[in-house]
């Protein structure tokens, strides 16, 4: 992964392949003008103060994520200047002219993506405090991500993209002070979170023939041991003995048996306990209720929730957060076969409730139900589940925003605020009680399907049935943003995105600080 360094060096004398600067769209009296952002003063001076005009001639507008390249001025040791758009110039009266952290994160990510093949780049973006340093560092590390495990390259030694170029090797953050404790801590945090988020992306992008439940459990076990996290893996025999009917029912049609993985990070100073539960369907064919043509090709991503939970627990351990965090990975492969669960079958869940399966493609809620009940037995202060659960949520919120449901309005708001704070678009969703009746079953305690209209909300109501009494709970439906089928943007690549990792880590940080409930 790209190495981050902090530097107080001046841009002209820095040996690098490129100098990255920020530009913005002017506001107020400067509306329509291209503004050179703070941090680029030395570069602008070398152009005799005419850098904005030169960039405008090249078509730059300052739009968010827009990248414009031009030769560096005489006297610079770097041969290239990369100007990246930050969007609208900030309001000096409202926030002192500070650029939003997410704008910095996106700009750094966009620039890092264009510097594939470079050995070193200096990022001279606006830095006012440690949070800016962290945002820029995080953007660089996430933007430089590349998944190359299955690509042949020259000699087969170094990871390279489709053009045969390795990701940016080193990023030097100018304006960040190497001896400043807060700046160093910000980079350390950015590195830990980005590395684990990128590990989640790797898992999501791994083909399902190489990542079945057993293989996922092995990856989680190895990482847990490396970072001092206690791990417990329930295989098929253990699941049968424990009565985990939901997970077993979903995995019954596959030759690769299901697993339930429990990851426990504990802190000696912790006063609170969070439980994260992730849907981990390593491939979802729909089972007997087979998905139609055109809906199968990306279903390796149906374990994105479990990947996010796994990454968040490891990140919490690496950061040494003073909160206990337990991650539950509900892993299964949903396949059609002679042994698969059929529509009309009744499963007895780990909680003891019975569920009539009306559609085997509504399988995520079944594995989550068992894991939610298991998590509830430890009586954590709060449970958050993460899942690529419903196409209805994609229709409602699009491909970049995840939905949040909860059994507590204040907690739902807190989760929403945490998501927005770290730059993960989310939206609070209701849980209308009248939709619960649609899941009434004449045969079992509840059916796994209800009304078609509002089916994303119905799924949340189903999950609520398996949360222990008195436990605060939130459900994140990440079906939209978990896998990017379009082109890359900002620090988001094509393919697995790692959505929800940063929200979960932020919730853990807030809980450790006593700022969440």
Beta-strand fraction estimate? 15-25%
Q: In DSSP terms, counting alpha (H) and pi (I) runs of 4 or more, how many helices?
A: 15
Low-confidence stretches: none
Oligomer: single chain
Per the principal axes of the C-alpha atoms, what is the gross shape?
Answer: elongated
Determine Rg (CA atoms, Å).
24 Å
The average pLDDT score comes to: 95
Major sheet size, sense and barrel closure: 8 strands, mixed
Helix share bin? 25-40%
What is the number of strand segments?
20
Q: Give the end-to-end Cα distance, rounded to a whole number of Å.
A: 36 Å
Structural class: alpha/beta
Order of the strands making up the biggest sheet = 8-9-11-10-14-18-15-16
Characterise this structure.
Helix 4 (101-114) runs parallel beside helix 5 and helix 10 runs parallel beside helix 15. The chain is an alpha/beta fold and 517 residues long. 33% of the residues lie in helices and 21% in strands. The strands form 4 sheets. The protein has an 8-stranded mixed beta sheet with strand order 8-9-11-10-14-18-15-16, sandwiched between helices. Strands 1, 2, 3, 4, 5, 6 and 7 form a 7-stranded mixed beta sheet that branches.
């Amino acid at each position: 992964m790209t190495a981050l360094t902090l530097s107080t060096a001046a841009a002209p004398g820095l040996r690098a392949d490129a100098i990255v600067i920020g530009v913005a769209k002017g506001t107020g009296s400067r509306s329509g003008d291209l503004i050179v952002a703070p941090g680029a003063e030395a570069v602008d001076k070398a152009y005799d103060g005419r850098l904005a005009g030169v960039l405008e001639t090249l078509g730059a507008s300052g739009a968010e994520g827009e990248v414009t390249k031009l030769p560096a001025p005489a006297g610079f040791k770097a041969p290239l200047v990369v100007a990246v758009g930050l969007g609208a110039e900030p309001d000096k009266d409202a926030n002192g002219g500070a650029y939003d952290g997410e704008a910095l994160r996106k700009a750094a990510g966009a620039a890092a993506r264009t510097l594939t093949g470079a050995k070193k780049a200096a990022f001279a973006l606006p830095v006012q405090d440690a949070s800016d340093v962290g945002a820029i560092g995080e953007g660089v590390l996430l933007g430089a991500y590349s998944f190359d495990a299955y690509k042949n390259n020259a000699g087969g030694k170094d990871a390279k993209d489709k053009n045969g170029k390795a990701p940016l090797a080193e990023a030097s953050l100018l304006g960040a002070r190497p001896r400043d404790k807060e700046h160093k801590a910000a980079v350390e945090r950015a590195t830990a979170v980005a590395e684990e988020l990128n590990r989640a992306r790797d898992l999501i992008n791994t083909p399902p023939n190489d990542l079945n439940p057993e293989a996922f459990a092995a990856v989680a076990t190895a990482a847990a041991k490396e970072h001092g996290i206690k791990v417990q893996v329930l295989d098929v025999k253990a699941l049968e003995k424990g009565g985990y009917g939901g997970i077993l029912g979903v995995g019954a049609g596959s030759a690769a048996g299901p697993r339930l993985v429990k990851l426990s990070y504990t802190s000696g100073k912790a006063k609170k306990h969070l439980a994260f539960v992730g849907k981990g369907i390593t491939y979802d064919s729909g089972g007997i209720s087979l998905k139609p043509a055109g809906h199968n090709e990306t279903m390796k991503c149906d374990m994105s929730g479990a990947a996010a939970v796994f990454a968040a627990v490891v990140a919490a351990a690496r950061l040494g957060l003073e909160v206990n965090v337990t991650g539950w990975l509900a892993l299964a492969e949903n396949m059609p076969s002679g042994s698969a669960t059929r529509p009309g079958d009744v499963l007895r869940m780990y909680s003891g409730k019975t569920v009539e399966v009306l559609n085997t493609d509504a399988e995520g809620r079944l594995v989550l139900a068992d894991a939610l009940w298991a998590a509830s037995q430890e009586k954590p202060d709060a449970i958050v589940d993460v899942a690529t659960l419903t196409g209805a949520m994609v229709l409602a919120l699009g491909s970049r925003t995840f939905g949040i449901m909860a059994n507590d309005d204040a907690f739902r708001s807190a989760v929403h605020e945490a998501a927005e704070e770290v730059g993960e678009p989310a939206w609070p969703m209701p849980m209308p009680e009248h939709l619960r009746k649609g899941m009434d079953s004449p045969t079992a305690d509840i059916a796994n399907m209800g009304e078609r209209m509002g089916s994303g909300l119905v799924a949340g109501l189903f999950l609520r049935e398996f949360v222990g009494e008195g436990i605060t709970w939130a459900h994140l439906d990440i079906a939209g943003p978990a896998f990017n089928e379009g082109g890359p943007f900002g620090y988001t690549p094509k393919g697995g995105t790692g959505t929800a990792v940063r929200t979960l880590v932020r919730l853990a940080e807030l809980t450790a600080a006593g700022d969440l409930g």
